[in-house]
C-alpha cells in the first residue's frame, strides 16, 4: 500500500528511486587507443539515492537486467560529451575531471535528433543535482506533506471523523487557516565501427 509507506517512512529498495534521466545506449570497450562496440542492448540512467543522496550514473544490460556500471558521480567532476571523431555511430564519452577514468557509450535511441538534448540533460543532472528532498512531487509525497503540516487537532478530526460526511470538509476548511499548534515537519540503431579514442 503506497500511501502507508508515505505515512511511516520509505523502506524502499533501489527500484523505487526515480531516474532523473534515462535512455537506450550500448557500451564501448576501450582497447589500446581504439573503442569497440559491445553489441548488447543497454540502458543508461542517472538517479539520486534516497539513502545517501549521492548521484549514480549506471549502465545496465536491457536483456539480462544486470547493472554493469554503477558509478558514484560528484557535481562538476565529470562531463558527458559526443565524440566528434566517430563518423560511423553516435559515440559519447563520460570523462571524469579528477581522474583519468573514461567510459564510452553508443546511443541506441531511435531518434538521433534527440541526442544533443539527451547529452545536455545528462550534464545538467550530473553537474546540478536536485537538492535532497526536492525530488519531483508524488501523490505519496503530497500526502506526507499534508499530514506533516496538520496540527494534532486536525489529525484527531481527520481520524476521529472517519465515516462522518462533514469531517473531511470541515478539516479541509481549517487547513487554509493558520493553526497555532501546527506540527513541524521533522529501438536499437546500428552499432558504430571501431573508432580511435580521444
Commentary on this structure:
It is a single chain. The protein has 198 residues and is an alpha+beta fold. The chain folds into two domains: 2-133 and 187-196, PH-domain like (Roll), CATH 2.30.29.70; 139-175, no CATH class. Helices cover 25% and strands 29% of the residues. The protein is built from five helices and nine strands. It has helices at 2-7, 115-127, 139-148, 152-160, 165-175; strands spanning 19-31, 34-37, 42-48, 55-61, 67-73, 78-82, 91-96, 102-107, 195-196. Strands 1, 2, 3, 4, 5, 6, 7, 8 and 9 form a nine-stranded antiparallel β-sheet that branches. A hairpin with a 6-residue loop joins strand 3 and strand 4. Helix 4 (152-160) runs antiparallel to helix 5. The N and C termini lie far apart (50 Å). Mean pLDDT is 77; it is low at 1-16 and 179-188. Residues 15-129 form the Pru domain. Its main location: cytoplasm.
Write the layout of secondary structure elements.
Layout: H1 2-7, E1 19-31, E2 34-37, E3 42-48, E4 55-61, E5 67-73, E6 78-82, E7 91-96, E8 102-107, H2 115-127, H3 139-148, H4 152-160, H5 165-175, E9 195-196
Antiparallel strand pairs: 1-2, 1-3, 1-8, 2-9, 3-4, 4-5, 6-7, 7-8
